[in-house]
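Exercise 7.
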Amino acid sequence: MVNLKELNPERSPREAYGARVRRLREDRGWSQEELAAKTEYSSQHISAVETGRKPPTLPFSRQIDIAFGTTDSAESFEREWRDIRHGALLEGFPEYVAHEGRAVEIRLYEIGIIPGLLQTPAYAQVLADSAVRRGAITPEQGAERVSFLAERQEALERHRPPMMSVVMDESCIRRPVGGREVMNAQLERLAEFASLPTTMLQVAPFDIGERRPFDLPVNLLTMSDRSVVAYAESQAQGHLDREAASVLPMLTAYHQLQAESLSQAASVAVIEQVRKGTP
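Solution. The predicted structure, written as tokens, is:
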């Protein structure tokens, strides 16, 4: 007889998640192999999640919801996964990510750092490590940030990916992060992103001056019903805005920013110059 690891759901959110997967599976009389057959994961992976040895991920949670019929319900595993992530993320951000994973168009503007959805694992790790050294987050939260970003990126690699428009302030590509090797790989990643059929990448040069309409990063999502959602962050929290009266002017300003920025071809040329260290 197989000895099952005893879980204490009160000990950690991860164990509570695993215990619930096990309970719902056993309630249906399924073995781990039978649950695996209903998902894209192996029985070994399911066992590791049930026993708390592996953390749940967004794609896993969505597959489990389909198998158990809990998608979009108050008891969904995706909802529980997002609750687990609250400890390492700004207030409001998990709600934004839920919309991001379903958006048909994504428009981003960033200042100072490469946008998260375009970051390489090494670049993201350097930023997380820096935050840990400053005492802003714990090592565990740093690891969660990096894995969470990887899951966001993976969620966008779907059959019909969203159209993505990214405008980066010139400071994003000129600010060295992690040393030459990390930056070279990151800049190469940007050029690869620009070559995709569903993307647009532009650099807003320093000499745009006062014509730059935004002083803070901007995230704009267009949903399948053509509604637009905006997300913005302060140092302490994030805010999701669905009100057309405030969101639509931001969309207009974003289009103005694109008109003032370099073309994609010129942007890739500048990125290549920075990568080679030429003026």
